[in-house]
Amino acid sequence: MAERLQKVMAQAGVASRRKSEELIAKGHVTVNGEVVKEMGLKVEPQDKIEVDGVPLTRENFVYYMLYKPRGVISAVSDDKGRQVVTDFLISVEERVYPVGRLDYDTSGLLLLTNDGDFANRLTHPSHEVEKTYVAKLEGVPYPKDLKPLQTGVKIDGRKTAPAKYRIISTDREKQTAIVELTIHEGRNHQVKKMFEAVGFSVQKLKREQYGQLTLAGLQPGQYRALSRREINALLSLSKED
């Protein structure tokens, strides 16, 4: 089935769809030996596509969910020799990479794939796929303390989108609380910075849910393939360009 060239490039993991369009416009891409600069060109599965002379390979797409432990890098390699998330996918032959990231000291649900278009759909800010985190806070907040999260707080000079929160439990003796926060953005250290903006530091953080996916049935370090139904459900939650 014929598909737009920039979409095929994104699916192969070359770059996002927009970056692929830039590569095409600058003459970096050839189809069957001919330089292509026009947008919207449709290619067939048998067409030979090259980017700067390197053939584009179309792998079978795979989609996994990992329960990332704390103390693991959300990357495929680390120059300091630290453990990375792909170390846990021992039986996966395809070259997968994380969709977005979780901080080194954050645990929880992380998606991995080799489908660049799928990854872009889920991580682009305009697509609004909800992610739910559970945080252990230092201090005991009242609902009024966290209410600004519902309308957005300023972090790194920009206001966050409205979020949803729920106080799960409090421990006044230890002066800690467990709070659930649902956001659809993915800015750097966002959850920690949002809580800091309302006066509470995060001692521990875990991503519990991504769209409709949960960690049910998985222990830290375990992973499983997503079903076609789960993949389609995630894509239906994201908004197309």
From TrEMBL:
- This one is known as Pseudouridine synthase
Example GO CC term: the record gives:
cytosol
Tell me the SUPFAM superfamilies matching this sequence: Alpha-L RNA-binding motif, Pseudouridine synthase
InterPro entries named among the record's database cross-references:
PsdUridine_s_RsuA/RluB/E/F_cat (IPR042092), PsdUridine_synth_cat_dom_sf (IPR020103), PsdUridine_synth_RsuA/RluA (IPR006145), PsdUridine_synth_RsuA/RluB/E/F (IPR000748), PsdUridine_synth_RsuA/RluB_CS (IPR018496), RsuA_PseudoU_synthase (IPR050343), S4_RNA-bd (IPR002942), S4_RNA-bd_sf (IPR036986)
Q: Which organism is it from?
A: Vagococcus humatus
The similarity annotation says: Belongs to the pseudouridine synthase RsuA family.
- List the CDD domains hit by this protein, alphabetically: PseudoU_synth_RsuA_like, S4
Q: What class of enzyme is it?
A: isomerase
